[in-house]
Amino acid sequence: MARLRSGAGADGLKKALPEGTVRKTGRGWEEVKVPPTPKVAGSAQRRMPISELPEYAQLAFAGVKELNQLQSAVCATALHSNENMLVCAPTGAGKTNVALLAVMQQVAQCMEHGVLDREALKVVYVAPMKALAQEVVAKFGKSLAPLGLQARVRARVRVRVRVRVRVDRR
């Protein structure tokens, strides 16, 4: 545990924010602005063919030939590690399929001798809007059906947020 607190990842490698990162802190908050990664000429990412995914993951991506650039770039982390991820990308960039790759990683954790222990598998997907939640449930439901899994909305939680605005008049 101390290794994780010290900034070393689960794999023992030191994690660091890129150069140019700006941190601002206040009372009870922290803002971190991370600059975009510069593009390197000729650094076209190889798109991962679905046929190279584990068989159980191929079932979830039926009808798809290859992952897109974003999905291919994060596939190793999402599918083959238990590292935390934050994916920021525009609408339609493929973030839901990245989440599905992470679900497949959890499916792998619940497999023993090629048999999925469905009782041991539980994944929580948090969506900011009811419409998006319904869209993701429909997508996951279709993708997970070949594995004998279901996706459903379990609970609605209402969070009350109070906002206070202070104006300094000088």
CATH topology of the domain at 50-147: Rossmann fold
Unreliable stretches? 1-9
Average pLDDT works out at: 82
- The fourth-level CATH homologous superfamily of the domain at 50-147 is P-loop containing nucleotide triphosphate hydrolases
Topology, pairings included?
Layout: H1 2-5, E1 22-26, E2 29-33, H2 55-60, H3 69-80, H4 95-109, E3 111-112, E4 115-116, H5 130-144
Antiparallel strand pairs: 1-2, 3-4
Features:
170 residues, Rossmann fold, two-stranded antiparallel ribbon, 5 helices, 4 strands, disordered N terminus
General description of the model:
It is built from five helices and four strands; from the N terminus they run αββαααββα. The protein has helices at residues 2-5, 55-60, 69-80, 95-109, 130-144, and strands at residues 22-26, 29-33, 111-112, 115-116. It has a domain at 50-147: P-loop containing nucleotide triphosphate hydrolases (Rossmann fold, 3-Layer(aba) Sandwich), CATH 3.40.50. By secondary structure, the protein is an alpha+beta fold. Mean pLDDT is 82; it is low at 1-9. A hairpin with a 2-residue loop joins β1 and β2. α3 (69-80) packs parallel to α4 (95-109).
Brief summary:
With 170 residues, the chain is an alpha+beta fold. It contains 5 helices and 4 strands. The protein has helices at residues 2-5, 55-60, 69-80, 95-109, 130-144, and strands spanning 22-26, 29-33, 111-112, 115-116.
